[in-house]
Design brief:
The complex is a heterodimer of chains A (about 160) and B (about 600). Chain A has helices at about 15-25, 80-90, 105-115, 125, 130-135, 135-145, and strands at about 5-10, 35-40, 45-50, 50-55, 65-75. Chain A has about 160 residues and is an alpha+beta fold. A five-stranded antiparallel beta sheet of chain A has the order 4-3-2-1-5, covered by helices on one side. The longest helix of chain A is centred in the middle third of the chain and has 13 residues, at about 80-90. By secondary structure, chain B is mainly α. In chain B, strand 1 (about 10-20) and strand 2 form a beta hairpin. The chains are: A alpha+beta (about 160), B mainly alpha (about 600). The interface of A and B includes residues 76, 77, 78, 86 and 114 of A.
């Protein structure tokens, strides 16, 4: 059966600033503010304030990813994946459910990664929000951050975005 | 399989089934097959088990498999997707969406490879020389993107779509003078990667390019549209003669299908209707063994009526055309031999023809600099374009060629002294264009603004105290071209590259902003000399290397080279310039050339 490669594109939203300033600000070192997207079938899928979106790999305003991880192969074909995404978008991952700290792009990437390959997204990414919130500074910022939404626009808004 | 509330029957496992919308737990026998599992699931989810797709660890679970085969154990999660009717529509929209993007990419890549070196090279050739003004105005049209290569492709597309544009470009004297030099044409053509691709595919093209005679004829043909039409008409006539010969029609047909068609279709698929494809195949056809009969791939155009009036054979330039008319069946060689005298009068007022589609702003220096300073990306793109470098290098290596090109523009026609100065400055200018500092200065908007301020300051100075700097008399110094608001055409375009890289060069363009038509000549040789020295001094400040005459600089190396036996002083100097004074590299260069 055909298999498709599944990759995880990891972007640092802070463009390196987190690595430099996290220590003095937060008291612990954070290498980046990670935004992730799943790349499969030659497209990049991610979850943001507007729901699930897709574009060409590296096609968001964030440009090329800082890191790329191979999550493995999947036998799931595109014509199974897309309805699956549609279902997700209607239920668990509609745009209104987006929360910067608790239910964000990485949550989505994790979910999709497990669906496609059975592997999870590395823990340093999914644990980031809790790491930040455990710092005093993070706790101060916490409530403010709740209202922020990150949605790096793609060049090609997904056709399967039910929103 | 009874499902109990709490305890799990022995041999059963609890598996979570997750759908996009929900999650359910199932208890199932660990030795069950996937099919049985699906049946169970189907009952709970109210779907047919055929509609269910189960996924675990990235694998799609097939019906005959067993759960243990896939390693599904107690407590693990399996994903489920229910195939519904909606899937097919989604799939089709998706594939539709994928189609245009895919085809879009392929058409652009098709159009980017050009078969007609002749019409494409003017566009590639004119681009670096067409100056910033045209380029910036093109960009402002919204035609081009910030990507220069794309701009060029669009330009080519436009050219194709609009043959008038092409003829206008051809008429431009700059283009014509460039095409008069076969060597340069050849270099330009070869440097174009698309051309190289093409050459690999069609060896006839390589033959054609390597045959200088043929190349020259091709270029003359291209240069002279009237001659081209005449030639085509001759071929039309020959062809119709041929048709009337018994068996001739079949021969023609064979010719067409065997030779011309694949070439034409190759040309068309790459270029979408190349007006010069006929030229290409007709020039290479003689190799197919049809010596005396020209392969008229103009079979296509000949089917349409030729409505153009034949050139007047008794007109003053008729000596050539008479000769042409007398040789109907001759091959290209004979026709072009006679007709090279016919020249199309250069249209001075036509700035490269590009303006046919562009907004032509005033071609002064001011708006030019403004555009540059506003859009550094544009300049960077332009300078970074691969063939730009090639052209620059080619020009730097061959100052005579550069001289020809730059000096043949009509701007210098009225002013021989300007020409002189320009000529002398040319090697300096070319080197400066390759100087990365200069390039970065050009791309830096603040630097450009500073330059403009300097220019304005000097202008004021010249007006207020004309006696202070006698050299600043409005005698267009090549440093800064004359920005006459009115006439002189966009061949400021080619002098502007000269102007810009001499940044602090005293912009003596000044006086001419009063509106004087032509720059008045500096009144004395002394002034000229002074200007030149000042220019060189200023240029020397910006350039990283001293701009003395290369002979002075490389005196030592020259002597060494001559002692070794390289007697050609000119070649030595050029090699030394190219290698920056490195003797060993210069020797290699000389040996390899």
């Amino acid at each position: 059966m055909d298999t498709f490669d599944v990759q995880l594109y990891i972007y640092d939203l802070s463009r390196g600033l987190a690595r430099q300033m996290s220590l003095p600000l937060l008291g612990r070192r954070i290498d980046g503010i990670w935004h992730t997207a799943i790349v499969v079938y030659g497209q990049e899928f991610f979850f943001g304030g507007n729901g699930i979106e897709s574009c060409l790999p590296g096609g968001t305003v964030l440009g090329q990813p800082d890191r790329v991880i191979n999550l493995g192969n999947t036998q799931v074909t595109e014509d199974i994946f897309i309805p699956y995404l549609a279902g997700l978008g209607e239920s668990q991952f509609c745009g209104s459910r987006y929360q910067l700290l608790h239910y964000n792009c990485n949550t989505f990437s994790n979910e999709v990664a497990q669906f496609l390959t059975g592997n999870e997204v590395p823990s340093y990414i999914t644990n980031l929000p809790s790491e930040v919130l455990n710092t005093p500074f993070g706790q101060m910022l916490g409530p403010m951050l709740e209202s922020v939404r990150v949605s790096p626009g793609g060049t090609n808004p997904g056709t399967h975005n039910p929103n | 399989m009874a499902e109990q509330g709490e305890g799990v029957p022995a041999g059963s496992i609890r598996v979570t089934v997750k759908t996009p919308k929900s999650k359910e737990d199932f208890v199932i026998d660990e030795n069950a097959t996937v099919k049985e599992f699906k049946v169970e699931i189907g009952k709970r989810f109210k779907a047919q088990h055929e509609q269910l797709v189960l996924i675990f660890a990235g694998k799609i679970l097939k019906d005959p498999d067993s759960l243990t085969h896939h390693g599904i154990k107690d407590g693990l999660t399996v994903h489920l997707v229910i195939k519904t009717q909606g899937r097919s529509t989604e799939q089709s929209t998706k594939s539709e969406a994928a189609e245009p993007s895919g085809s879009g990419q392929s058409t652009s890549s098709q159009q980017s490879t050009t078969t007609a070196e002749v019409p494409s090279s003017p566009s590639t050739g004119t681009f670096p020389l067409s100056g910033f003004g045209n380029l910036a105005s093109l960009g402002s049209l919204g035609l081009g993107s910030s990507n220069f290569v794309e701009l060029q492709q669009q330009m080519q597309r436009q050219l194709l779509a609009n043959p008038e544009l092409l003829s206008q470009i051809m008429e431009n004297p700059l283009v014509q003078s460039m095409m008069a030099n076969p060597e340069m044409m050849r270099q330009l053509l070869m440097a174009n990667p698309q051309m190289q691709q093409l050459m690999e595919r069609n060896p006839e093209i390589t033959h054609m390019l390597n045959n200088p005679e043929l190349l020259r004829q091709t270029m003359e043909l291209a240069r002279n549209p009237a001659m081209l039409q005449e030639m085509m008409r001759n071929q039309d006539r020959a062809l119709s003669n041929l048709e009337s010969i018994p068996g001739g029609y079949n021969a023609l047909r064979r010719m067409y299908t065997d030779i011309q068609e694949p070439m034409l279709s190759a040309a068309q698929e790459q270029f979408g209707g190349n007006p010069f494809a006929s030229l290409l195949s007709s020039n290479s056809a003689p190799m197919a063994g049809q010596g005396d009969v020209p392969v008229d791939s103009n079979l296509q155009p000949s089917r349409t009526e030729n409505r153009e009036p034949l050139p007047n054979p008794w007109a003053p330039q008729g000596s050539g055309s008479e000769g042409r008319a007398r040789v109907p069946g001759s091959s290209t060689t004979a026709t072009t031999a006679g007709g090279s005298t016919a020249q199309v009068t250069p249209s001075i007022s036509n700035p490269l023809g590009v303006s046919a589609g562009t907004a032509t702003g005033p071609f002064g220096m001011q708006p030019l600099m403004q555009q540059i300073s506003e859009n550094p990306q544009l300049v960077q793109n332009m300078l970074g374009a691969p063939y730009m470098r090639t052209v620059m290098q080619a020009l730097a290596l061959n100052p005579q060629l550069a001289e020809q090109i730059f000096l043949s523009s009509p701007m210098f026609e009225g002013n021989s002294q300007l020409r002189e100065q320009m000529r002398l400055q040319l090697p300096v200018f070319l080197q400066q264009m390759q100087n990365p500092d200069v390039l970065s200065a050009m791309t830096n908007p603040r630097a450009m603004q500073a330059l403009m301020q300097i220019q304005q300051g000097l202008q004021t100075l010249a007006q207020e105290v004309p006696g202070l700097m006698p050299g600043l008399v409005p005698g267009g110094i090549p440093g800064m071209p004359v920005p006459t608001a009115s006439e002189t055409p966009a061949t400021q375009s080619d002098s502007s590259p000269s102007g810009v890289p001499n940044p602090p060069a005293p912009p003596t363009s000044l006086g001419s902003t009063d509106g004087t038509a032509t720059p008045s000549v500096p009144s004395s040789a002394v002034q000229q000399e002074f200007m030149q020295q000042m220019l060189q001094a200023l240029a020397g400040m910006t350039a990283t290397q001293p701009t003395q005459m290369p002979e002075m600089r490389f005196r030592m190396q020259l002597n060494q080279l001559q002692a070794m036996g390289f007697v050609n002083r000119e070649a030595n100097i050029q090699a030394l310039i190219a290698t920056g004074g490195d003797i060993n590299a210069a020797i290699e260069r000389l040996l390899n050339s």
